[in-house]
Design brief:
The complex is a heterodimer.
Chain A (H helix, E strand, L loop, with lengths): L9 H6 L5 H13 L1 H18 L12 H17 L2 H6 L2 H5 L2 H5 L1 H8 L8 H13 L7 E2 L3 H9 L17 E10 L2 E9 L5 E8 L10 E5 L2 E8 L2 E8 L2 E7 L3 H11 L5
Antiparallel strand pairs in A: 1-2, 2-3, 3-4, 4-8, 5-6, 6-7, 7-8
Chain B lengths: L1 H13 L2 H17 L10 H20 L8 H7 L22 H9 L3 H12 L4 H8 L3 H25 L12
Helix pairs in contact in B: 1-2, 1-3, 2-3, 3-7, 5-8, 6-8, 7-8
The chains are: A alpha+beta, B mainly alpha.
Chain lengths: 268, 176
Amino acid sequence: MNPAAHPGDRLVDFVDGRLDPASADAVRAHLAVCADCRAVEMDLRAAVSASVALRDDAIEMPADLLASVSRALDAESVRAAVPAPVARIHPVIRALVSAAAIAALVLLYLQVGAPRPASDLPTLVARDLAAVGSRTLPLAVQARDAATLERYFANSAGPRVRVIDLAMMQIALEGATRHTLAGRPSGLYSYQTPSGARLVCQMYEGRLSDLPPPERARDQNGFHFQIYTRGRVTVVFWQEGELVCVLASELPADELIALAVAKAMAPA
Amino acid sequence: MHLRAVYNAAYRLTRDVDRARDLTQDAMLRAFRAFDTFTPGTNARAWLLKIVYSVFINQYHHHRRTPATHSIEALEMQHGFEPVSPATPMPDPWQPEGWSEPVVREALEALPEEFRATVLLVDVEELSYEEAAGVLDCAVGTVRSRLFRARRLLAASLRAYAAAHGRLPATTKEAP
């Protein structure tokens, strides 16, 4: 840049540190001799300083906004997952899809990776893992012992769910809730590892054949495990009688698969 | 969480709790439907803000609810835009008596929409020029040009406010 020339709107680049060193030096040289441009530069900097004050402004988000956005997304999710005539005939289906499951929306989608169909069960499970972590999917009961959580499931409507105890692996139960996966009632409970990693287990009535083709599969101890990756989350499904069981976590995939293999159990 | 970022952006745009709530909900629904347009690894916040601004602008064009603002040229003419002397200092915004949020907001709201949006995206939401250009669907050069004019007007408005409230430091003439 010719130091004699007024930089004009390139002053914005200068103020924002976007110029290469040679161009910045040229602007500095110009400013040293041009009072008008120095005044403009000062104004630009003052405006930035003033706007910065808005970055931390205390905008109070309406307390019920999350819930209302969740409801809207919930309805949208059901519309996408359920054929329209069914949705019209059975409006109660809408109520089966927990608002909280959808609540964290885009953030959660981003955590689970590439877009999938709205009814992609591995994606929904991975999203639930993130929703539990962000507390947008609250746990109805919080307890660290399997017996308490099994009592909760026994006393609430939905499929009979067994709670897998991972205490021997230093993985502590956190709590449980009734939930839905693409309209299927499920039982959901979560764990935390000592390092803070979270695992979520869900069980629902269904068949492994409802799932999309897995990225990996493993047959062990008489069980067939279907393994999916959604973003950073590994999702492992297997069948126990009428129930499909699924574990999801950001733990290393092999660790999670090993847990599933160790804990899969044929129904009594 | 991104919902808060979306609501904050919506509120800064609309300055109205109900409209911000509607805008947030519309934007989140749009994001939900358009998730396949998001490229993993890119700035998720910028992607969401693009949706917020797009919905806002569509609403504006559809409902014409946004209060009218003067053209940028009229505002520049109003402020004269004779560059002030560097010896006419501005109040230091970092001092305790620096700019309060309502004062800055009022000055920002006087800007035409596309100029206000550019300042909000770059100076408040901290997007890069390139990201802001993506949100506003314009060239990076347009972002630069809008920032230049908008920041100057903002400074002029703040100076006028400071003068009206006796907050400008005493002027000292530069030594010849």
